[in-house]
Amino acid sequence: MSDMHFNEETAQALDAEDRLAGFRSQFFIPGGNTPQYYFCGNSLGLQPKTARAAIDQELEDWATFGVEGHFHAKHPWMPYHSELRELLANCVGAKPVEVVAMNSLTVNLHLLMVSFYRPTPKRNAIIIEQGAFPSDRYAVESQIRFHGYRPEDCLIEVEADPSTGIVSMSALQEALKQHGQRTALLLWPGVQYRTGQAFDLQAVTELGQRHGCRVGFDLAHAAGNLPLQLHDSNADFAAWCSYKYLNAGPGAIAGAFVHERHSTAELPRFNGWWGNRQDIRFQMKPNFESTPGADGWQLSNPPIFAMAPLRASLEIFETAGMAALREKSVRLTAFLETGIAQELSNVLRSVTPVASEQRGCQLSLQVLAGRSQGRSLFDFLSANKVIADWREPDVIRLSPTPLYNRFTDCYHAVRLIKQWAQQHG
Prior knowledge:
By secondary structure, the protein is an alpha/beta fold. The protein folds into two domains: 8-35 and 322-423, Aspartate Aminotransferase, domain 1, CATH 3.90.1150; 55-319, Aspartate Aminotransferase, domain 2. Helices cover 38% and strands 12% of the residues. It contains 15 helices and 13 strands. The protein has helices at 8-16, 51-65, 69-72, 80-83, 85-92, 105-116, 134-146, 151-154, 169-179, 201-210, 230-233, 304-320, 322-343, 371-383, 407-423; strands at 37-38, 99-101, 125-129, 155-158, 183-189, 214-218, 237-240, 255-258, 348-350, 363-367, 386-387, 389-391, 395-398. The strands form three sheets. Strands 2-8-7-6-5-3-4 form a seven-stranded mixed sheet, sandwiched between helices. A four-stranded antiparallel sheet has the order 9-10-13-12. Strand 5 (183-189), helix 10 (201-210) and strand 6 (214-218) form a beta-alpha-beta unit. Helix 5 crosses helix 12 and helix 13 packs parallel to helix 15. The chain starts with 7 loop residues before the first helix and ends with a helix.
């Protein structure tokens, strides 16, 4: 869109021809009579209007049936998690047997690393990207220590470009060339949380497996943002949260993927009764026999009230389709980027890759005048109903999401940044 003139008329015309525009009405937009320009789906997605009804249905069935709701609720609770499988699989490009909704993201990472980080004296390292999300780093460090090794020796961080934070594939290749023979696990982001850089999951997986590593992904900023092809990527495992682009609510139940080739493998794992084979689960036998597929990593019976909002959101994704959402997302983010380039090139710089295939919807922006001015701009935007987020030390993230953001939202965000710049000239 670099050849397009950025103005309100263009934004309105793009909104008028948007085939997905109607999905906005299926979400609550905060702000009352003067709705916010909400660019924070990368941190917390907006509430689907069907979420309340989904939870109310479970409350009604609990009141009506009591324990019998496990079998007689509108959506019986006993197999409830299995009814999410196909929706979840379609969203992340997996087979239904490969996915499960359970726990939270970091819990799932730990459970999966129990199975896929199996260090030996000669191969005990974990590779992550420099500047990984802190919770991932904490989890990896603690796993290394749990196995009796030292993070100082076994945690390898692939260096990022010091000026942008971008991690190149060549840097990952070099790290694996140097350390691959001693690396047990490559744990990589689908989208890097601070910069918005997206990675080719299949290329990363092939690279890691070429060096004999298990490969897993944190897809917190990728699930619901990009049209993932998890099965085809051949990754060993992945985990993600559902409160960002998947709009399942604060602290929502997370998701996990285990590739089909591990479906019946007797891997080490932490066992719980809901991971036991469904056909013998209630025989209450002492011996654990894992359910095939990702279900085998479950510990406890599923939290129905937490799953109901995820179900409501996934049904919207199913109707819209990830391909159509991605097409709009590319255009939305490009339009926002065009406005910044045309109107604010002396005010902001983006540290997110320019190529659409190397990013999702997020743009990570730095104010050229420095951190203190960046914080000033962020506060100004918040006061004027442009909801972004701030990541230390100096990044403002704007993420126009295709289910509920408009091209006019992007126009008004740029207009307000320009207004701030004029006041701070």
